[in-house]
TrEMBL record:
Gene3D superfamilies: 3.40.190.290, Winged helix-like DNA-binding domain superfamily/Winged helix DNA-binding domain. Coiled coil: none annotated. The keyword DNA-binding applies. It comes from the Bacteria. CDD domains: PBP2_LTTR_substrate (cd05466). Keywords: DNA-binding, Transcription, Transcription regulation. This is LysR family transcriptional regulator. InterPro entries: HTH-type_LysR_regulators, LysR_HTH_N, LysR_subst-bd, WH-like_DNA-bd_sf, WH_DNA-bd_sf. One of its GO terms (cellular component) is cytosol. One of its GO terms (molecular function) is DNA binding. Belongs to the LysR transcriptional regulatory family.
Length: 305
């Protein structure tokens, strides 16, 4: 049951951005743009309009979105029903990950994994990095979809990992704050100006809390810079942190992938840079069954796309 076009529409509605929709689905931005142009020509009407705050659905777009969501729900229920019959006695794989990035990744890969590896029954458990890794140690989870900052060796020598993709952190400053600039013409792959924290002293800072993977590394970076953030809000959700920044509540540091030129946010590079990487983590010495190896290979293929 191919609902690729419907998934495009749902992602556009959820992200409000062609770029972010493409990132969420793991496809190129031109693929989304070309699909949107083609479907609007087919219907002879606009499904979305562009505004300062992102993409807004037209009435036709709302109708198409509602139909897309219904088709997605029918597809998902159909696969669940069929797997319920076919997977009696199947291998159960439990994947742990954060309620934010981990859950989004699982949602993105669930359909492909279920279709290509029908002998596996997949389960997802929400948990933050250290708790998730402990679940792997205790064999309560088979693997973890994690984001790591610093040295993964800090998590112990009894785990194995496969790195999938790296992300750089950026300082995000709302328009109107000191050092902010018009970034509407900046592309996500363009170099950003370097952050000058001396000009941002005492500004409200939207902070990650200890559950965020890069918290410890960020605190060390602040100490090296002699900077003490004026934390007015803390969250374990990087998406919530960026939304707070985007709404003008303060400055903050998030992954570069969040930046969109449609947002009223000025991005800056960190000096020295801080990078985090996504990884698949599992227990060292675990039984590498053919099913588990097939799952790892498929996960790597999807996540590195």
């Amino acid at each position: 049951m191919d609902i690729t076009q419907q998934q495009y529409m749902i992602a556009l509605a959820e992200t409000g951005s062609l770029t972010k929709a493409a990132e969420k689905l793991g496809v190129s931005q031109p693929a989304i743009s070309n699909w949107l142009k083609s479907i609007e020509e087919q219907f002879h009407t606009k499904l979305v309009i562009r505004s300062r705050h992102g993409l807004v659905l037209t009435q036709a777009g709302i109708i198409y979105l509602e139909a897309s969501q219904k088709m997605r729900d029918i597809r998902n229920q159909t696969y669940r029903d069929i797997r319920g019959i076919a997977n009696e006695g199947s291998t159960v794989i439990t994947i742990a990950g954060t309620p934010n990035g981990g859950a989004e990744l699982f949602a993105r890969i669930y359909h492909d994994l279920g279709t290509e590896l029908p002998s596996l029954e997949l389960k997802f458990v929400e948990s933050y990095n250290r708790s998730s890794i402990n679940m792997v140690r205790q064999e309560k989870a088979d693997l973890v979809l994690a984001t790591i900052a610093g040295n993964i060796e800090d998590y112990g020598d009894d785990i194995e990992y496969i790195e999938t993709v790296r992300h750089e952190l950026m300082l995000a400053v709302p328009y109107g704050f000191p050092t902010s600039y018009d970034a509407s013409a900046v592309k996500s792959e363009d170099p950003f100006p370097k952050a000058d924290l001396s000009k941002l002293a005492d500004l409200p800072f939207i902070m990650p809390n200890e559950e965020i993977s890069y918290y410890d590394v960020l605190i060390k970076w602040f100490r090296q810079k002699g900077y003490s953030p004026n934390a007015v809000f803390r969250s374990a959700s990087t998406k919530s942190i960026y939304n707070m920044i985007r709404s003008g509540n303060g400055i903050g540091i998030v992954q570069r992938r969040f930046f969109s030129p449609l947002d009223r946010v000025s991005p800056f590079s960190l000096d020295p840079p801080i990078q985090v990487f996504s990884a698949i983590i599992y227990k060292k010495g675990r039984d590498m069954s053919p099913e588990f190896l097939a799952l790892l290979n498929k996960l790597c293929k999807i996540l590195k796309h």
